[in-house]
Amino acid sequence: MAAQRNLEVVYARHSRSVYRRALRLLGDAEAARDATQEVFVRVLRAGGEVPVEPTPTAWLYRVTTNLCLNRLRDRNRQEALLAANYVGADIAPAAAEARAALRQLLARIPEDLHEVAVYFFVDELTYDEIAPLLQVSRRTVSNRLAAFRTLVAELSSERRSAS
Amino acid sequence: MIPRPTPRRGLACPSDLDLDELLARDLAEANEARLRGHLEGCADCRARLAAFTAVEPPGWEEISARQPSFSRPARPRRWLPALGVATAALAALVLVARPRPTPGPGARTKGTLALTVIVKRATGGVETLTDGAPLRAGDEIRFSAASAKPGYAVVLGLDAAPAVTVYLPASGATPVAVAAGSGQVLPGSIVADATPGTERLVLLRCDAQPEAPLLRETAARALAAAGGRPERVGPLGTGCDETSVLVHKAPPR
After folding, report:
1. Residue B99 carries which DSSP code?
2. Residues B215, B110: contact at Cβ < 8 Å?
3. Region at B198 (left for phi over 0; alpha for psi -120 to 50; beta for the rest)
4. Interchain contact B61–A (C-beta under 8 A)
5. Most buried in the list A52, B63, B161, B201, measured by CB within 10 Å?
6. What is the ipTM of this complex?
7. Rounded to two decimals, what is the model's pTM?
8. Cβ separation of B213 and A8 shorter than 8 Å?
């Protein structure tokens, strides 16, 4: 009972940011409503409590982000999200053709690099903002983004050689 | 450095996460002050914040209906909704309504908001409760408000469990609007059960449509600060006008 009571309070305070974030990532109101519900199911399982580190909102942000990335079962949609926001040395984001190419490349990149890429390219968070969110060092953030970019560059090079 | 598209926010501007933390009141005082200072001078960020607050998430009622595990099991209540009460206990209760002592900061009560408790006796007859008037289990209570300003009414019960109950608006019901004026009988009623104890009934008048769970949380903090004793609860500090009566339900004589 205490968990449900806590949950209602947490919901009143944070549902707007969770829903808005899900809507931003999923681009579909009904899917965002489902995702919002699922996020708070997880809160309920945790006793209706939200960790205060780094902040409750940041914790929910991350849960929502990972849940939405998982919900984008159609990898094309996940890749489209990143492709629309990514700019690399070799690929200009403006051209639809280039974005399509980038989506193909992103499909070959490990998913665990997608989360940090979303924070950097989609949310425009800085290294210093991403580090506490992921609860890793700034260097780790830098390394993961570098690994992401290196993979994109390598795969882009492979693609050009093949064509 | 990793290149990325032209930023949508300025270098000194807060991130979306910062704005969400501000709205959720997650930030430390110094960070919140710094952020609010930036907002005062940045029209773009004020527009971003306005766009955030314009987003309407699914309501609690919708989400809890879709997810049954979100619903709380019913807890024993000191007051029962008027509908569906099948039995009345025999115990006699005494209800004493008296104005709250001197209002503190945040309680703008005198002359702006008043609460009258109307009782329909189980044995027949309707009267306005006065100090020391006996209230028996089964008596039905309604609330009447007088307000200097229009707004939305909320009635909370703070009991010695300690717990806070939202009596008005009823769960799932639409917000209850009040006009400027007196003698406004609020919708719904509650029926006294036989459980003895003390409870503070608080009437709030809010300018905007209230979020009942947040008000309940605020009231719960005030009740906790008073050691769980309703008679010691000070102003709730909700930002709404408030007034209250203290109800003492004594055991049968």
Report:
1. B
2. no
3. beta
4. no
5. B201
6. 0.79
7. 0.53
8. yes
CA distance linking residue B89 with residue B86, whole number of Å: 10
Top mean pLDDT of A71-75, B14-18, B62-66 is at B14-18
**Residue A82's pLDDT band (boundaries 50, 70, 90)?**
low
As a whole number of angstroms, the distance between CA B144 and CA B164 comes to 20
Q: Which domains does chain A have, with CATH numbers?
A: 1-71 (1.10.1740), 74-163 (no CATH)
Whether chain A has a CB inside 8 Å of the CB on B60: the answer is yes
Note whether B21 contacts A: Cβ–Cβ < 8 A. yes
Q: What size, in residues, is chain B?
A: 253
Q: What are the C-alpha distances in Å from A156 to residues A75, A145, B41?
A: 18, 16, 43
> What mean pLDDT value characterizes chain B?
74
Q: Which two tokens stand for residue B7?
A: 């930023």
Contact between B81 and B190 under an 8 Å Cβ cutoff? The reply is: yes
Residues comprising chain A, all counted: 163
| Nearest of B242, B248, B204, B249 to residue B100 by alpha carbon | B242
| Amino acid at position B45, single letter | C
Residue B237: beta bridge partners?
none
What domains does chain B contain, in order, with CATH numbers?
16-54 (no CATH), 90-249 (2.70.50)
